[in-house]
Amino acid sequence: MEVTNLCFISKDVSLFIKNYLLKQQQVNLLFFEEIVFRKRVAKILANNNVCIDNEEEIIYFLNNNLNKFLHYIFPEINEILRNEFFWNNLKTFLIKIKQINNQVLFYNLTSGEELYSFCIMLHELQLNKNYNITVTCPSEITIEKIKQGIIITTAGRNYLLSFKNVFNYNSAEKYFDVKGKNINFKFEFLKNITFIKCNIPCNLNKSFDIVFARNKSMYFNKQSKQILNNNIQNLLNNNGIYINGSKEFVDNTFNKVGYCIYKKNEK
Amino acid sequence: MKNKAVVIGGSAGSFKIVSQIIGSLPKKINVPIFICMHRLRNVNNGFTDAFKLKSKINIIEPLDNETINNNNIYIAPANYHMYISENGIKLSVEEEINHSRPSIDLTFMSAAECYSTELLGIILSGANNDGSAGISKIKQMGGTTIAQNPDNCDINVMPLEAIKTNCVDKILTINEIIKYLLFFVSV
Questions:
Q1: How many A×B Cβ pairs under 8 Å?
Q2: pTM value?
Q3: ipTM for the complex?
Q4: What is the CATH number of the domain that holds A216?
């Protein structure tokens, strides 16, 4: 079978993989939205020269590359300051928050760009001392990549323009090391961040003032969206803030207080 | 899923054509139409509104998980891929395909799986080869495919790439496309 980045694995193979991971590896991906899962698995298998309809080859790959699989299965938000309108609104929102020692969680982060964008914003607003950041990631590979400040090069191409549009001037260079085609976020802006390897739903013995989960629920099937919603509810303090993507549905346990910014209802 | 549907893909030079197509549709069409166009990634306002001014039909820029209803036109949101599935519309922020997000190929391919023989795919003016793999998939699943006549395009790369796949059933001018579409949605 010809395999390209635009292939989909079959529904049967998809179910086989989800069941295998749950039973043999205790990794639950049954929540994953079917059509996106089928596309992403096909891409991962194709990139690793695994035949997308050979179950034996797939099992061998999964047994030896589970971490890699979990890193790539979740789509990445791969732009610095993706959706400038959102970041401009968040800037206004953060300026209004007087509280110090804010606990922020980046939920199920699959690449670093979202975190780097937030760190840039805190530094630009000189608020970095007021925020403690925790990051949960599905795999160790993801954590290592984020810690190294790796930015996907093709996605990084607009970062200077986005920076200008959000902060009104050009000085983004101080945040990045540019070596040829590679762009890295500088390590010095990633200090004091706690990384935790954790699958969804994640259970942490801690609650947060702000949870970033932009474009996360869209990979959940209808039944599982509620699980994610409840998980985020439980991770937030009373009146905590949930930040999501502009095209995601939020249930009535949250009140909208800004563009993509929601406040948890008090119980 | 065996109901009928239409997917339309376009890029540079296709905005005015899509406006013309939308403006020519009657109040009731009994099929959903999915439109995937390359657009500015950071501009959320104006694009869909411009189509709404022309249309007698409900035009929606879908949220994730949007239910698909006949007589609606769905426009792929800026900077999201738009999948068509049996459970509704799924959005995604996966990497760009053919330097594009939304990717016409992804929308066409997922729609082809969903609607198979009952799908009409139309590829319009544009400057890259996005959509040609999607056109092949529609044909492979038994659907009908149309490319805008390259001689009538502002930028003919996209229809030419689709035609090269040998999976295009009809090469039509914009007036012929509208005529065929009206026939398709009325049967």
A1: 80
A2: 0.92
A3: 0.88
A4: 3.40.50.150
